[in-house]
Design goal:
The protein has 263 residues and is mainly α. It is built from nine helices and two strands; from the N terminus they run αααααββαααα. The longest helix has 46 residues.
């Protein structure tokens, strides 16, 4: 049986795979965002679904019995794809979230630009850190991992029931907790340096009132923040790699925790 026969006889399976791919591409890092046109996402999802259909058929995926079951399967697979994409997006957004925190202390809260990946306004330094984590994600073959995760997820998840929905909510909640926890840990050194500078500027203003502490302190905090970020850059690279590798393991464990397929 060639690819055309499989596509013709198992068109419903192909549509289910296509919808799951579209769901992940809508929210996953690298695939989402205005930088990648939706026509490209749709075309990539179409060819990926066409190639993945023979592989998914070997996993025991059955054809929907009627139109109602097929409609539920379409909605379930789209929700599952969006949830997996957001799970990865929350974890990868750690660097941008940390930049949101320490940029206010550096005096860069008003200096915001549009991130071409997430299509939201972030501080300029957050945009740089976001591009950094995205490059780490690509260097560790994160895009290939998500393509493989789409196909392998059909071994575990078919239709979303109440138990799977609770697991999805717990996974997204844990991803949000990890995002805020790690982002605060990254921002703490910069916040500590800026607080020490604020204390020093307060003491200088008491000892030598003739100094314009407000203007001088603003420039010093910005300079000190960039210096700390520069010294932390090697550590940030290691943290980024550990975040992406942890994303691989946790996303696979998350999918496996959803249990056996509902037939």
């Amino acid at each position: 049986m060639n690819v055309y026969d499989i596509f013709n006889n198992y068109f419903q399976i192909f549509l289910i795979i296509l919808v799951r791919c579209i769901g992940i591409f809508v929210s996953a890092p690298f695939f989402s965002g205005a930088i990648m046109p939706f026509r490209f996402k749709l075309g990539f999802a179409f060819f990926l679904g066409l190639i993945a259909t023979p592989i998914v058929l070997t996993m025991g995926v059955k054809l929907p019995e009627d139109l109602a079951v097929f409609g539920v399967a379409i909605v379930s697979n789209f929700v599952f794809g969006v949830a997996v994409g957001f799970f990865a997006f929350f974890i990868v957004s750690v660097f941008q979230q940390s930049a949101q925190i320490f940029s206010l202390q550096m005096g860069l809260g008003m200096n915001e630009v549009v991130d071409p990946v997430s299509d939201v306004q972030v501080p300029a330094i957050g945009n740089i850190l976001g591009i950094l984590i995205l490059l780490i994600f690509l260097r560790l073959d994160g895009h290939f991992y998500f393509v493989n995760l789409i196909v392998e997820s059909f071994r575990k998840v078919d239709l979303i029931d109440r138990n799977i929905s609770s697991i999805i909510l717990k996974g997204l909640t844990s991803a949000l907790i990890v995002m805020f926890e790690v982002s605060i840990k990254i921002a703490l050194p910069i916040i500590a340096v800026t607080i020490l500078l604020d204390i020093a500027m307060g003491l200088i203003s008491r000892v030598a009132p003739q100094f314009n502490v407000m203007i001088m302190g603003f420039n010093l905090k910005m300079l000190a923040g960039f210096v700390v970020v520069w010294f932390l850059m090697p550590i940030l690279l290691d943290v980024g790699e550990s975040i992406v590798m942890e994303l691989y393991n946790t996303s696979l464990d998350w999918v496996n925790a959803m249990g056996i397929k509902v037939n």
